[in-house]
Amino acid sequence: MLDEPQPIDLKAIINNMTNLRNLISHQDVTPNITQQQVDDYAVCLSRFSKALCEHLEGKLFCLNQQFEAQKEIFEAQREAASDDSSSAS
């Protein structure tokens, strides 16, 4: 149970990082952030990107399977139509 990843609030992380960037860029403020916080952000963003890639690869795999199944149906219908037109001649 300890190995199970904890859910992350990606929206809050991105908001925090954006706020820090805005303070640095627009107000020339030195942020109060530790190396550990930066490392934690990096870990969370990495977990998110890996999970997103896995999700998208799964969706792509399903779409490819559907495409291949439709292609087989189309080819079978085309072959049947071709057989019908040759037998009618």
Question: Which features characterize this protein?
Answer:
mainly alpha; 89 residues; 2 helices; elongated
Beta content comes to under 5%
Helix fraction by DSSP (H/I, runs of at least 4): over 70%
Number of helices: 2
Shape designation: elongated
What is the terminal-to-terminal distance?
Answer: 70 Å
> In angstroms, what is the radius of gyration?
26 Å
Number of domains: 1
Q: Low-confidence stretches at least 5 residues in length (pLDDT < 50)?
A: none
The helix-and-strand class reads mainly alpha
The string of secondary-structure elements, in order, is HH
The number of E-state strands comes to 0
Mean pLDDT: 89
Largest sheet: none
